[in-house]
Design brief:
Length: 484
């Protein structure tokens, strides 16, 4: 977790793609504008599209002006952005890329720090990595790191294959697996709040916690991502990475110090203590859904979306009850949910506290963390109603928006890129964590293959999702926290 100014050369493979335009280019501009990237920095966009430096700089300008947190363009940033037409499958193109790297290192007097960002299809990881080696890019003096977007593979088996591909060139400590949710300041706030406040850590256990809910509902459909989404679904797109990573920050034992090594060790312990699902457990504890058109005409049916088969059984919603088999959390259910085309849109963690015996209240006591929208934490408690009876009055404390009024809240990609440039792996996912995440996810996917085909579509768009998700909690006398 670094706030030091960084420099070096970042090679962005897939520089003309959607991820580069929406997230990476705006993030780099904001870091430069905030003084966290030095003048000794250069960005080289690399893609198959024929383009001049000037044309790429115009593309960068448009991306920055349409990106998150934009207020004013810093035109000097554009001079640090150049382009090299590159077909990753051709070693000669990578040799030309090396020449561009050498030229820009000299022009901007960059430190010997090189990052290769794979904003490309996993199908060309192998050729890209092989040709980086064949073209001798990594023989340039200095540190060479690679950033890889999630999901890493589509199963534990393919994840291990991609890992071995990367190891052809890069050492383990130089492979940065990107999952931007841990890069959210208000997700990291969960760990920080526990660390800073011993009284909160004192109730962070099964003696005081009734259940924990991690919610990532989305009020958007799949839009134009039909081809990608239909191969993955909510389970692979959101549960395998984002939801399980948030789970680790909630359920982990506190490390003695907030260092990358200590944090990742504790996160891995959590994942190892999430049991593999049996087919019977999947039937009982996993809900999957697929949306159909809403009555207002806002959403199409998923099966009517572009590039989606008319008989698709891909899940656009999952809700799962998990357990973390440790003394701290014995008997406490963890509920996670995510879905497309819902009536809600937020990223939240709700720690539901146990009520006093015999007390009835309309709202359960809880400690909540709102990451999107970025509102920080809030607390729901009960105090005495101002009358002569001991009747509870629900009291909402926070979120304290004034605490953040004058604070710059970076987009998570800003945090992640900043950490990668500094060589800090704290917010990134280790491959050992990814392996455990795939173990858990694969067990659910395997059970689905054995179970009867789902009766899709099973929830109307612009609602809270399948009724089965409500029933999942109701059997334990719990209910979802909803925010509309």
């Amino acid at each position: 977790m670094s706030n030091k100014q960084s420099g070096g050369i970042l090679v962005l493979f897939g520089a003309t793609g959607d991820l580069a335009s929406r997230m990476l280019l705006p993030a780099l501009h904001q870091l430069y504008q905030r003084g966290l990237i030095s003048e000794n920095f250069a960005l080289i966009g690399a893609a198959r599209t024929e383009m001049t430096d000037e044309e790429f700089q115009e593309q960068v300008r448009e991306a920055v002006e349409n990106g998150p947190n934009f207020e004013k363009l810093d035109k000097t940033f554009l001079q640090h952005c150049r382009y090299q037409t590159t077909d990753n499958t051709k070693v000669e193109d990578l040799k030309q890329l090396r020449k561009k790297m050498e030229s820009m290192a000299k022009e901007f007097d960059t430190p010997e720090e090189y990052i290769y960002y794979y904003s490309i299809a996993p199908e060309i990881y192998d050729e890209t990595t092989t040709n980086i080696k064949e073209a001798q890019l990594t023989e340039l003096n200095g540190n060479h790191r690679v950033i890889v977007e999630k999901p890493v593979g589509d199963s534990l088996e393919t994840a291990e294959e991609y890992h071995q591909i990367l190891h052809k060139v890069f050492d383990e400590e130089d492979i940065f697996f990107m999952d931007h949710f841990p890069g959210m300041d208000f997700i990291q706030n969960i760990l920080a709040t526990r660390y800073y406040n011993p009284f909160i850590e004192g109730i962070w256990n099964n003696q005081f916690v009734e259940n924990i809910q991690i919610s990532l509902p989305e009020n958007l459909s799949i839009e134009d991502r039909g081809s990608f989404y239909d191969e993955n679904g909510a389970l692979l797109d959101m549960f395998q990475n984002h939801l399980l990573q948030i789970l680790t920050l909630v359920a982990m034992e506190l490390p003695d110090e907030l260092t990358a090594e200590n944090i990742h060790m504790k996160k891995l312990e959590v994942l190892k203590n999430v049991p593999t699902f049996t087919k019977e457990q999947v039937e009982e504890k996993v809900v999957r859904g697929q949306y159909k058109a809403d009555s207002e005409g806002k959403f199409n049916s998923y099966r009517s979306e572009q590039d989606v088969p008319s008989d698709s059984n891909t899940d656009t919603y999952v809700a799962i009850e998990l357990e973390v088999d440790t003394p701290r959390w014995k008997g406490v259910p963890f509920y996670v949910r995510t879905g497309k085309a819902l009536i809600e849109q937020h990223t939240a963690v709700d720690v539901m506290l146990k009520p006093a015996k015999g007390m009835e209240s309309d709202v359960a006591p809880r400690l909540s963390f709102m990451a999107e929208p970025a509102q920080g934490m809030s607390l729901v408690l009960n105090q005495k109603m101002p009358n002569n009876e001991y009747e509870p009055l629900t009291t909402f404390i926070g979120p304290d928006q004034k605490s953040f009024e004058d604070k710059y809240i970076p987009h998570p990609y800003e945090n992640m890129v900043q950490e990668a440039l500094a060589g800090d792996r704290t917010y990134f996912t280790t491959f050992e964590e990814i392996k455990e995440q795939w173990r858990i996810t694969d067990s659910i996917a395997a059970a689905w293959k054995e179970l009867p085909e789902p009766d899709f579509p099973n929830y109307r768009a612009n609602t809270f999702g399948p009724i089965e998700a409500e029933e999942l909690l109701a059997k334990n006398n719990h209910t979802w926290v909803k925010r509309i």
